[in-house]
Amino acid sequence: MTNFLVHFRSPDLERLHKQGQFWHIFFCNGGVVISQNEKDIWTVHMPLPPDTNTELLDPYEVVFKVLGGSSRGHKIDIDEILVTSAWTGHICVAEHYGSNRGQVFLSGDVAHQNIPLGGYGMNTGLGDPFAIGWKLAAVINGYGGEETDVEWVHGEGQGTVISTDEKGESLRDRIRSHVLTNDGENKCLGVEMGSRNFPSPIVLQGTDDLETPEWNEKNYIPSTSRGARARHVFLRDGDTSIHDLLGFDYDLVDFTTEGNFASSFKEAASHLGIPIATVHLPNEQHARDLGNVALCCLALEQECHVTFG
Ligand SMILES: Cc1cc2nc3c(=O)[nH]c(=O)nc-3n(C[C@H](O)[C@H](O)[C@H](O)COP(=O)(O)OP(=O)(O)OC[C@H]3O[C@@H](n4cnc5c(N)ncnc54)[C@H](O)[C@@H]3O)c2cc1C
């Protein structure tokens, strides 16, 4: 299919954020809206049949239609249409990356194209000249030979990868298992969300046998173990995340009715010059249970939870 892209400027946050703040929204009609700067620059993509004459499309109407999802259009104020274009997703790869005599090399989209959803096109496009650069340097400086990289399908024979015979099946199995075990660039929630400050001089070392979930780079396991990122939980109003209440430095969440623990801790912190904010949540039993707070805060008679904001 073809996709029509409209890049535009609109300060109409009231209507754009009608369903709340977002980065991407994927609508049931196949359209997408992307917030580019959290302020006034946006992009919509609208899927269309491949034979559509996109020159006849009105970009304003396209924006309204995408934002309306599967219902009628959702009008917003638009200050300026910045760019419109049409694009079609491809997955393809050139048969050769270099000329026979090794004097010309291809890089970027002309050598291989990816559907943009993974965000790999420009990344791999920039990777090519880098890879060509160090290999060329090796050849020119005399320490590199003519061997090409071993690729997945190298030497397997034309068409093996799509053949239905045993050889094709086994090659596909090898590629599948390679992809599954080397997918770190798009499955790395453990790296993105799961970093821990433990052991650390700023985190209380307890004597109990608190269990810390196993860490791995692919998965993030929300936890309130010592030094872990404070876990997200919605509060009783069903709308506010506990993260919305945390500040920039240290936060102390006090779930007790009176809130005395937080205030005494704050006093001590202020005496030591430690920037600490307190969040008093007296009626949040669910958050309190989920947070395992009793396990986390030995220093405060097992009632509070110290986190990084
Ligand atoms: C909607 C969308 C979202 C994307 N998002 C991402 C992303 O998040 N991350 C990412 O890494 N990649 C993304 N990409 C892919 C990325 O944009 C491309 O992979 C990248 O631009 C390719 O760069 P390039 O220099 O190889 O080719 P191009 O950017 O296509 O540059 C080729 C240039 O050559 C010019 N040209 C063509 N023919 C001639 C000629 N005969 N004479 C002179 N000039 C000519 C063209 O006008 C063009 O300017 C996205 C692509 C799309 C469509």
Automatic annotation (TrEMBL):
Residues 4-147 form the FAD-binding domain. The keyword rRNA processing does not apply. SUPFAM superfamilies: FAD/NAD(P)-binding domain. Gene3D superfamilies: 3.40.30.120, D-Amino Acid Oxidase, subunit A, domain 2 (3.30.9.10), FAD/NAD(P)-binding domain (3.50.50.60). One of its GO terms (molecular function) is FAD binding. It holds the Pfam family FAD_binding_3. The keyword Flavoprotein applies. Keywords: FAD, Flavoprotein, Oxidoreductase. InterPro entries: FAD-bd (IPR002938), FAD/NAD-bd_sf (IPR036188), RIFMO-like (IPR050641). This is FAD-binding domain-containing protein. It comes from Talaromyces pinophilus (Penicillium pinophilum).
